[in-house]
Amino acid sequence: MIVLGREGFSERLAKELRAEFARIETKVFPDGESYFRISEPEKIRGKKAILVVRGRTPNLDQNRMLTESFLLLDKLKALKAKKTCLLLPYIPYSRQDREFLKGETVSVKTVRNLLKEKCDLLVNVTSHDFRKEGWIDKKTYNIDATESVTEFLKSKKFENPVVMAPDMSVSENVEELAKSLGGNSIGFEKERDLKTGKIRTFGKIPNLRGRELIIYDDVASFGETLYKAVLMGKKAKASKIICILIHVLSVYNKKFEKNSIDLIKDESDEYYSSDTIESPITKFSIIKQVSEFLKENF
Amino acid sequence: MIVLGREGFSERLAKELRAEFARIETKVFPDGESYFRISEPEKIRGKKAILVVRGRTPNLDQNRMLTESFLLLDKLKALKAKKTCLLLPYIPYSRQDREFLKGETVSVKTVRNLLKEKCDLLVNVTSHDFRKEGWIDKKTYNIDATESVTEFLKSKKFENPVVMAPDMSVSENVEELAKSLGGNSIGFEKERDLKTGKIRTFGKIPNLRGRELIIYDDVASFGETLYKAVLMGKKAKASKIICILIHVLSVYNKKFEKNSIDLIKDESDEYYSSDTIESPITKFSIIKQVSEFLKENF
């Protein structure tokens, strides 16, 4: 087995898997085309190859991540890899999963199908649509990163934590997470107005005096959902507010005149994101969990 | 038949073809994902659909052009178009057409194959590899834009023109072009040092006193080849120097501390590019030629 990728992440994954490693050399030509080279092409023939395509925020270039995937998977085939696995810890175009207005492209579906055709196994981490029927098959797998989150938070030894899920899609995980940490969970619903983009929240939360509030969400882009949750926590007098996210994107939030990562940093006491996207608040890794999955399934 | 696209170009093509037109609405989300919507989706069913994906320089985003092609072709299929044609006047990733160093991705090949799979006909204009064996088949067509160039230059009524091809790949066309304009052609060879990137030129050109020198090339990115040709023309005392290009990209040229388009503008008397890419020097159109091809072949 061989792991291919650009950054320390891929090397660490190779180590964890006791697999070989081949570095991807990369640059962007001034005319906008990207260049990729597998540094040791002679290593590929006959091997199971895991290609890691991972990005960095700010300025995550999701279109480039797609091109990178296509060009390198094609190259691995030309170099006669035995099987190919594409690991996209954060899968590009994971947002638009349905047609809100007639005529809109459903990018999640198109992108997923395109990528799936080009490899033997497509692996993502905690992607929004991972419970959607029909989108998951033998060739596609979404690793739910709650296990990595739990392990990381356990090491922090909170005294009296309560876990909150601002997005109902992770609420099941949140109950489990709270149990593992010896605390309990609360949830609130949000609803986004499709025209104005404003988020409306429902429900109240109990008094949290003397308790650490852990807010767990799968993805933050504008950071607005998280911000609302933090405000609720403050109002409820939580002793400490901890934000923990799988994927974090640094997107400029007009209303608060700062990017989402700064919003999170400024408004909470502790803030952590995983290494699915390299970010200024990346503090824990999904590598162990991913490697365990790959050992069993690839 | 229906033409789909974003800018005036696509509307004009539809008019020339006497076809319907449907506008593509588009935006970029702040997290980097692109959004596309076919404005009148009900128009598609049962029709032959021509999707135009065209960019603008500076900052031509070639990766985004690929994503746009994939998402919209998939949508056209979902909307039950009878047949699809993808028109990429400038095809993204048209540069790296072979493996210079072992392990490099051959992006031209991968991109072309990917796109071809997703439509019934793939049409490009003057792409670098268009004479390569095996890459052109029933589903792929490269329109040689020399016809459009000739027509445009004829309207300029030069008195005593001579046409020069700084790149041998267009030399055949240049002879024809010169004949049509009532002049003659000269050529010179260039060779690029793969390590340093420096361009070496061979051969001399005759005295051009009293003659208009037309320099014709298919693509300019850094503008360096063209610049060398202009210098040769000046040395040979041409009365006027005219640069004419199919595709022009505005790429910053470190050596001259300006972008390639400004280099062309500053160093020559007249400068024209086609509308395969929308640029500050776009002055003539390939629409008539493309429409004639499509009328016969789609």
Helix content of chain A: 25-40%
**Which CATH class of the largest domain in chain A?**
Alpha Beta
CATH topology of the largest domain in chain A: Rossmann fold
Q: Which class of secondary structure composition applies to the elements of chain A?
A: alpha/beta
- Number of discrete domains of chain A: 2
CATH architecture annotation name of the largest domain in chain A: 3-Layer(aba) Sandwich
Give the oligomeric state: homodimer
Can you walk through the features of this model?
The structure is a homodimer of 298-residue chains. Chain A has 298 residues and is of the alpha/beta class. Chain A folds into two domains: 2-145 and 286-297, Rossmann fold (3-Layer(aba) Sandwich); 146-275, Rossmann fold. Chain A is built from eight helices and 17 strands. Chain A has helices at residues 8-17, 62-78, 107-117, 146-154, 171-180, 224-235, 260-267, 287-297; strands at residues 2-5, 20-28, 34-38, 48-52, 83-88, 121-125, 140-143, 161-165, 184-187, 190-192, 199-201, 212-220, 240-248, 252-253, 258-259, 270-274, 282-284. In chain A, the strands form four sheets. Chain A has a seven-stranded mixed sheet with strand order 3-2-1-4-5-6-7, with helices on both faces. Chains A and B meet through strand 3, helix 2 and helix 3 of A and strand 3, helix 2 and helix 3 of B.
Give the SSE layout.
The structure is a homodimer of 298-residue chains.
Chain A: E1 2-5, H1 8-17, E2 20-28, E3 34-38, E4 48-52, H2 62-78, E5 83-88, H3 107-117, E6 121-125, E7 140-143, H4 146-154, E8 161-165, H5 171-180, E9 184-187, E10 190-192, E11 199-201, E12 212-220, H6 224-235, E13 240-248, E14 252-253, E15 258-259, H7 260-267, E16 270-274, E17 282-284, H8 287-297
Parallel strand pairs in A: 1-2, 1-4, 4-5, 5-6, 6-7, 8-9, 8-12, 12-13, 13-16, 16-17
Antiparallel strand pairs in A: 2-3, 10-11, 14-15
